[in-house]
Amino acid sequence: VHVVESGGGLVQPGGSLRLSCAASGFAFTKSDMTWVRQAPGKGPEWVSSVSPSGLYMQYADSVKGRFTISRDNVWSTVYLQMNSLEAEDTALYYCVRGDRDTYATYLREERGQGTQVTVSS
Fold this sequence. Notes:
Number of strands: 10
Number of helices: 1
Shape: globular
Strand content: over 45%
Largest sheet: 6 strands, mixed
Strand order of the largest sheet: 2-10-9-4-5-6
Mean pLDDT: 96
Distance between the termini: 37 Å
Order of helices and strands: EEEEEEEEEHE
Low-confidence stretches: none
């Protein structure tokens, strides 16, 4: 299993970023996919999940209405569009297979390098 996250960076409060995650080595089209973030000194925080078809999405309350998860099953890629970014969104963002209830197991075994998002003026 191989996942590569990209698209992070430094952005001002209120700004936007689009994260991408290219995945390989497993049945992507049959897998829920999840974005997780980890701020310095804190544990992993579930952010959002998308079903294999891309039709069903779930969001943490802290990002609902600001973030949008999507996927492209042709290119085995998951996206996270992040708008109205806040300082509290600063974290290292990972993508992993699994849904809200199962991602933790995969995160331990299949974590990528993540992509850093820093929201600061």
